[in-house]
Amino acid sequence: MSPSKSLLIGAIGLLASVEASTIPNSRSNQHKSGYTSSLIATQFGMVFDAPVTIGNQSFQLLVDTGSSDTYVMQDGFTCIDSTENMVIPQDECLYSNKTYHKSRSHRHVPGEMFGIEYGAGIASGEMAYEDVSLNGLSVKGQKVAIANVSTPMGDKGVNSGLLGLAYPALSSAHPANHTNNETYWYDRMAYDPVLFTMQQNGLIDPYFSLALARTPQNASRGFGGYLTLGGLPPVKHSSKFSSVPVKILDSIPKNITSGLHARAYWASTVSSVSYGPSSGGKLKTNSTSFKFFLDSGNYIQYLPSAIANPINDLFDPPAKYVEGYEGFVVDCSAKTPKFGLTLGNQTFFHNGRDLIYQTDDGTCISNIAPSESVPLLKQLDINILGVPFLKNVVAVFDFGENEMRFAKRLESNMTTSGSSGSSGSATPTPSFSSGTKSIQKISWIETVLASAVFAAGTMVF
Ligand SMILES: *[C@@H]1O[C@H](CO)[C@@H](O)[C@H](O)[C@H]1NC(C)=O
Ligand SMILES: *[C@@H]1O[C@H](CO)[C@@H](O)[C@H](O)[C@H]1NC(C)=O
Ligand SMILES: *[C@@H]1O[C@H](CO)[C@@H](O)[C@H](O)[C@H]1NC(C)=O
Ligand SMILES: *[C@@H]1O[C@H](CO)[C@@H](O)[C@H](O)[C@H]1NC(C)=O
Ligand SMILES: *[C@@H]1O[C@H](CO)[C@@H](O)[C@H](O)[C@H]1NC(C)=O
Ligand SMILES: *[C@@H]1O[C@H](CO)[C@@H](O)[C@H](O)[C@H]1NC(C)=O
Ligand SMILES: *[C@@H]1O[C@H](CO)[C@@H](O)[C@H](O)[C@H]1NC(C)=O
Ligand SMILES: *[C@@H]1O[C@H](CO)[C@@H](O)[C@H](O)[C@H]1NC(C)=O
Ligand SMILES: *[C@@H]1O[C@H](CO)[C@@H](O)[C@H](O)[C@H]1NC(C)=O
Ligand SMILES: *[C@@H]1O[C@H](CO)[C@@H](O)[C@H](O)[C@H]1NC(C)=O
């Protein structure tokens, strides 16, 4: 599958890292082991960044199960406004000011370029072979993207790019003569993303896991949880895992997956949904199954409107649909509905605190929105689960068995441990309520919602 495989040199063994546990992985002990890093939560718990070393330089990169490339912004990159195509100051791209400069291990990949379009924007640049270290494991000559052009996609100065954790078929290298930035979904040359290379080099078993942490509603940054390679994260969870197969989405045209009929997104099926009022009242169950993909780069969950609308009505006071941006605004201190998703043989309920996001200006939005409001999702008959769900489970992404496994978290307030960010006690207290004020500030929300749509999935045709 990977044209680059023969050029990959192989692993150089383990680099110790302060942020990574270095307990070696072994099949006999695989549930306790693996290679872990602590994440940083930014943007009020919407975005999660992991430490990654490229060449000799370390960066925070957005952890994205909804795409497959790892890109880092290069020194002197050009920031382009996404609507007018105007060059704007670099800091308006919102990335960290830590950018990549060519190291001695950098080698240009001849005949290729990088170009990608996410829901949130566009990035492009060169494909390069570089040494990549993640969670204490290193790969020499991994294909990565070094971006010299981007629209604003950073998180106010923490991350410098993105770590793509989906399948090879979604990777977005192109022939070097691909200059049209409106067709980055097509004409792709698939390669193996970093975790696939690590597995082929025998560094890890073929899976990774996520346990995202919950930050207080009004905290812009904090400890973000864990990403573990070839093992499970160090959080308390039920010993019972539910599993679902990773599916090939037939609705996605093959011309965006390098012509391959292959797994691309972490996609599967929700078999039923249960919801009801915060207290009292009976739970309703809708047992019509629907397809989804799981996207750690997306903090809004897009569900069938027949599910999303009644759940938004069950906030107290109810969340209000706002025309024009296809999302729901909600009182920051609203009582939240009960909401569970059945995946495999278990139903996973959301902690109510994960159903409301406070934005920068104090306005709150519901993170459940109707898929039908996004033409593309409607067209493809697909839904998105993301950050809210992931805060309630240990999620295992297994590209060996091609399945996802989920276990309930027992320590649901994981805001106190870890090495990065704030370590205050869990504060389940929405301290301010925006009420009607929120509606006046819609333009900001509009921007947020627009950029949240596939905040990192590549699927606009
Ligand atoms: C896309 O291409 C157009 C036309 O060449 C150019 O003006 C624009 O800056 C490019 N935008 C990005 C984000 O690459
Ligand atoms: C990067 O940003 C930080 C914080 O904003 C600032 O302290 C530092 O001086 C900046 N570094 C460079 C090289 O501009
Ligand atoms: C990385 O390597 C380059 C080239 O060898 C060197 O100029 C630079 O100072 C190094 N950077 C770090 C952070 O070690
Ligand atoms: C980005 O890098 C590519 C080569 O990798 C080059 O062709 C292009 O001109 C550069 N664009 C900008 C805006 O620096
Ligand atoms: C790029 O080059 C290849 C091989 O010469 C050619 O088939 C293809 O049409 C070219 N693509 C573009 C966008 O020019
Ligand atoms: C639930 O599914 C898991 C994973 O497929 C399986 O190991 C377990 O036996 C199932 N439990 C029940 C009660 O069916
Ligand atoms: C990609 O495939 C779809 C469905 O097969 C087709 O409608 C579309 O025109 C194709 N796009 C390109 C750019 O090839
Ligand atoms: C259940 O959800 C489906 C969409 O997944 C919808 O078509 C159907 O109308 C819903 N049923 C009820 C009773 O709400
Ligand atoms: C966890 O959060 C709940 C409220 O959701 C609170 O009642 C409980 O005390 C918290 N537990 C810890 C250990 O902070
Ligand atoms: C967040 O809310 C808590 C509880 O009301 C308050 O103590 C804290 O100062 C607030 N923090 C920020 C950053 O506003």
TrEMBL record:
InterPro entries: Aspartic_peptidase_A1, Aspartic_peptidase_AS, Pepsin-like_dom, PEPTIDASE_A1, Peptidase_aspartic_dom_sf. GO terms for biological process: proteolysis. One of its GO terms (cellular component) is fungal-type vacuole. Residues 48-407 form the Peptidase A1 domain. Residues 1-20 form the signal peptide. It is an enzyme of class 3 (hydrolase). Pfam families: Asp. Its EC number is 3.4.23.20. This is penicillopepsin. The lineage of its organism: Eukaryota, Fungi, Dikarya, Ascomycota, Pezizomycotina.
